[in-house]
Write a structure and sequence with these properties.
By secondary structure, the chain is α/β, with parallel strands linked by helices. It has 30 helices and 33 strands. Among the domains are: 163 residues, Reverse transcriptase/Diguanylate cyclase domain (Alpha-Beta Plaits, 2-Layer Sandwich), CATH 3.30.70.270; 243 residues, TIM Barrel.
Length: 853
Amino acid sequence: MCVPARFLAAVLMYCSLCAGLLLPAAHAQDTTVSVGVYNNPPKIMLDADGQPSGIFGELLQAIAEEENWQLIAVPCQWLACLDMLDSGDIDLMPDMAWSERRGEHYAFHQTPALRSWSQLYQSADQNIHSLLDLDGKRIAVLSGSIQQQYLQELASSFALRVEWVLVDSFVEGFDAVNAGVADVVVANQLFGDQESSQRNMEATPLVFQPARLFFVSHPDSAINQQRLGRIDHYLDQWIADKASPYHRILGRWAGGLEPQTVIPGWLLFALAVLLVMVVAVLLTSLWLRRMVALRTRKLRASEERLNTILDSVEAFIFIKDKDLRYQYANQKVCDLFGLKRKELIGRSDEDFFDAATCVKLRLNDLRVLEQGERVVDEEINRLADNTLLHTFLSVKIPLHNPDGSIYALCGISTDITEHRQIQEQLHHLAFYDPLTELPNRRLLLDRMTRALANQARTGYAGALLMIDLDNFKDINDTRSHEAGDVLLQQVAARLGTHLRATDTLARIGGDEFVLMLEDLSCDHDEAFQQVGSLANSVLQRMDKAFRIHGQDHVCSASIGIAMFADAVNHEDLLKAADMALFAAKSTGRNTARFFNTEMQAAVNQRSALEAALREALEAGRKQLQLFVQPQVDSRGKVIGKEALLRWQHPEKGAISPAEFIPVAESTGLIIPLGEWVINEACRILSAWQQLPDHRELPLAVNISPRQFRHPGFVEHLLGCLEAWQVDPGLMELEVTESLLIDDLDQTIERMCLLRDKSMRLSLDDFGTGYASLGYLKRLPLFQLKIDQSFVCDLLTDPNDAAIVQAIIALGNSLDLQVIAEGVETEEQRQRLLQLGCRYFQGYLFGRPASVEH
């Protein structure tokens, strides 16, 4: 292949420019400020002149003009920027979200330059609408970011199976979704909204982490500390002035500009450059064949230089003709097949790969050659003389004649075998015990959940056997921990014999194993006998001595058994099996015990509470009573009250709602209990009509999700209001975020119906559960209630203060009233006022009390 001189000149010029970037910078004067710039439009990026651009870039340029600073933009990836900041190679780093850890490591100014939040974006073929939809998905997230830390903790708390695809930039994350390496990508909403519109992607309704963004410097640099102070000076002035450069810049970048051309991630960028180069080589070679013989030597020299470039690339580059025979291959391809380039030309995949691989490669190649598609695929290939599998990320494009016909394909493949192996290893470590190779607790819980659901659907019984080795500590103390590990491995192997395909054997820690049996007999007695027989078989197998380091060791076991029918979820099932195991060990070890009624004291107590609650419902106000707590505005004026249910048992005394509300929820008593509360609230509102100072006060009533979804809820509510002749506008309904998880459309329809009846709806405990900006926009709410857990540490925890401020800002943007719960001190009230909150509830203004008081 040969290349035109102009192309070579361009390549050499590009190399010269790259070399120039590596030259060390001259010593800066006091007015010279070096700024780390990573590509994150529209917040920060480089413009065509190599200067900082975007919101942060233009804002810093405006300040630099005022301060006579000379800015030097230093392009870098996110992690590289942080390393340069740590080493002092750059003075300032823009677009840094504050966190407690970063606050200890870097110097921040005081006034945030920008406020943002994080959001998830998906490709068009995904259908993610809630947090639970992320189960089993691949999420691309910026490596080392607070977004990564937050999402990993969130996924762990919800037991979501998520595959993390760590990237060095937001662009690389979007590239990963486009390439099929990830399903969703995390980005700030400013960058994500712009980038997704260019890539035919869409934003999910999942938002999180309201953040304050700053410029930062190294904490030991006094001059940079002064510069941060000057940045604060201009931010304080400009934010208050709507005609300032700050608002002009923000309006220009955050107000719906034309989409900016975004440079792709490093991998696809490299592949695209290489494709262009290969196409250029082909077109150039056709043209050069027509050149006179006098230029042959010069053209051959150009071809050799270009081959040197292609051969130095860490990718497999090749060209196949319409017969699928190789017409070009770079050195990486030759090394893979162990041939010289001239020996490879004219040969096909059948000469190098096994039959199955050839079939898959042929299908992809024909899509390019016959249909003209650009194919991006992850190909798993096996060489004909090797059992090892190689995984390649391949991009293949058609090559066209001047008349538009396709004459060949060009492919660029990157070997990602090691990357895939690391992912598989991480998955194995996450779900399997490294010592015994058995499923660990995490995988067991997942399978238990599915098994309980299958039993409820099919009726086939199941059981959980918790197996604990007797006196296992002795072998660790008398022999060694290594001998103990060998014993655990042999126990796992012995317990694993004779298992059915549906059985699961797991090690959940120490010397505890769990055997889960599914698809037992539908007949309870027969299933009971099957489990008992299997437990005895396990005990007999454990009686045989184990051979450890040339010596026999006898180790018995105790077994606790719980049938699936003994529990409604995996937590209760494990507790039941654990209680049965305790009973087995208490009766002399080397035995098995079933969970029985004597172990159900807690269950019986719960049943007694349920019965007492039913009696309380029949007794009505003899045991149940609604207390009220005032809600006030910033001047201390009472604007409404909240009804709080109290239960005074004639024998047990006061019973906390934290005890009886969960029982009511699980047993269905929440429906009649909620109806009693609504009727009592209407009675109170009717009585207030006789009191001039209470006549206009609304009363807030908490409504559980189960009660809200009940078919008769709206009819009963409207009937009570009519019976007591109460204005519906005085009834305020408080619902929690958990109401939004299931059947959102029906929930919104019902809420709109209540709003049309003049009733007001409030979202209680906001910020503690399921949050979605997309859903909040659709809900007919009038109020958000800040949960008291954020108010409690408001004065000492900057994170809580930031969350409260973000909730207040969100409420204001949606034109919703925001009220803070749990306000107990004047200092909390003053801080909330500073943050923009104007309505309060808590002990500072009044404790819950009976209506008469």
